[in-house]
Amino acid sequence: MGFFEPSNMTPFSFQFPLADFELTRLPVDPDLLRGDASMLASAVQEFYRDSFQKLGGSATVLVSGGVVSVAWQPERGNASAQLLQHAIDLLRQGNVSSAEPILRALLAQDARNADALYNLGMLLSDQGRLAEAVETLQESLNFHSAHSEGWTALGVAQARLNALPEAVKALERAIEIDSGNAHALRNLAAIHAKESPSRALPFMQEAARLLPEDQRSQYGLAQCFLELDRVDEADQRLVKAISLDPLSEIAELARTDRSRIAQANLRSNAGGGTRPDAVFFCLDAMQKFHALGEAQTKAITFEVAMLGRGGLDINSPEKKYTLKSLPGQFSGLHLVSMMYVGMRALAPTADVGIHLSEEHAEAKRLFALGK
Q1: Out of 29-43, 110-124, 244-258, which region has the weakest mean confidence (pLDDT)?
Q2: Does CATH number 1.25.40.10 belong to domain 179-273?
Q3: Can you give the pTM of this predicted structure?
Q4: Cα 184 to Cα 168: distance, rounded to the nearest angstrom
Q5: Where are the chain's structural domains?
């Protein structure tokens, strides 16, 4: 199928009162524009001319009698469809300021455009303009009531507004329409998890199954397992979450959770008391660092800290780790003890992420006796 030639096409056009234009969209002081009608008209003309001419084709923007008139004719194809796709592409790139006027232009021409309403509602929700987002998404569902993702977006916006009963209903409707809507499942689980992790668990398990590469889903499932004291399963999911994006904020949260798990296991294995093996490892580190000096202590401590970001198994005696800055093979607890001693020496107030204060104090006493 070929394209229509421009000469045979009806241009995309819309009009709106100049007074309805949101002046904060312009890079000029709003009060200055309000005091100069000519400057205001020129700024609005330039704003829309720039928005549409970037798409190719030809654009005409007129301001007359307090009314803004915009017409755009693409080089070929369906103008409205191209504009909608361009707006969606801009949103995916994070360019909200350029996407919003295009979506509003589509709605100025056709207020029943459910796709434009949905994408505008998502944009508003992500920007925290929640009341307007809810209204816009509800309007989109008036024209496309079987849109599962639309119900999901509405539920998310309502949850952000703390309208939780309404959010639950919207997300349940999304899942009723599409049982495989993983984002609806994940967000519904997140709401239930605040009151009942057991009720949240099946929804989060299904979301994690459907989105195996989604870090938020894997971390959410780990949180459910932690709340239900299913620690081993939680730790597996935390490892998975970290591996998906090691540099993200979620990965940092997952590392903190893993440290807490390791700390609990460490104390459990010691019957709640001091770990003799950790005392020995701390003492060994003090002796090594004393002999090596501050520069080498920094290098070793930093290397262990970076290695620890991927998770160290401190509850296994197996010597399965090596360092570039120090010869030998080490267990996870040995390395963590070494890092603890190094950090206490280099940055005494820093949060190491694991508590070996009792073992460190005893090792320090023994170290002083051995001098």
Answers
A1: 29-43
A2: yes
A3: 0.66
A4: 10
A5: 1-110, 179-273, 276-370
